[in-house]
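Bench notes, afternoon.
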Amino acid sequence: MRMLEHRTAKGTGEAVKASYETAWERTRARIDREIATGDSLFSILARMNRLALGDHEVDFWRKQPGVAPLARRVLDAWDVDVDERPSPYIPAVINGRYGVRTAFSPMRYLAERIGDANVVVEFGSGWSANLFQLYLLLGNQRSEGLKYIGAEYTEAGRGGGSVLAAHDGRIDYTAVPFDWTQPDLSFLADLPRPLKVVAFSHHSIEQVERISEEFHPGLRAIADELTVVHFEPVGWQRDAELLERRVADDADYYRRLAHDLGMYPKRVRNAPRSDLDITTVEAQVRGAAWWSFTRRYNINLLEIVDGLRPRDWEVEDVLFDYDSLRNPLNPSTLLTLQAKPKG
């Protein structure tokens, strides 16, 4: 039984780049068609299903005396810490029962951290859909004097972002080449001082098995003020055994793990049902680790963050596995790092 047959050279840098060049070339063709309509950037992103700016009044339940007691009971039943900040969860009704859903908006979270920054960079930006969403959320007034940079591995992704920016005509946007394994940050060096940077990645590091340990220190060395935010599916890396087996490339271990999770190829009939309770955190973390193994996703971001020198960095926010982004095997984790003043 070959459960891992789709694990191929996709994990290599050149293979990943080639696959994304193809994907972003198709997206670029779609962008060209949308631009030809003459519609606004807002409308184009909406039609391309890349306009998700978050919930209205996420804290509604906290502000309503008649709602809050029941809401707290619902959240407590799902082991949600109601005093956690930022809280990604709200009480909901799901399939006729009280439940919990994610209401966390990465774009709103970033917008709250812009402050007096004059540069916002997305690393691994693709065609910069996230940057354009942030730009629309901030608006023209708050974007005045703010430079948007899409740092992207693929030429097709950079091209798509550039034509959309030109179509908008008001955003101060630049697309630059970037490689997580060899991070060249020189594109920041000649920008006006003081250089106040908000940098982020959103499901970009996931595609790179090992990112360079020089990225965070290199970024801090250039910027005068710096916030780094990662929205990445790396929460499973906090499990020491899963990470050890993943680093060792232990295919047998992950084959058994897939069996425990009940994930079998369609052609396998009468496969035994797993006794693992899939409603547990343990099951979710195992599923995420298995997915990472089969795709050769990242294995060293948490290690890098844990190894950053406390005198240089403060870890402000950590939210493990807060959202599935349509794929329950690839949940997002939030890591927010604040560079401490130099000297």
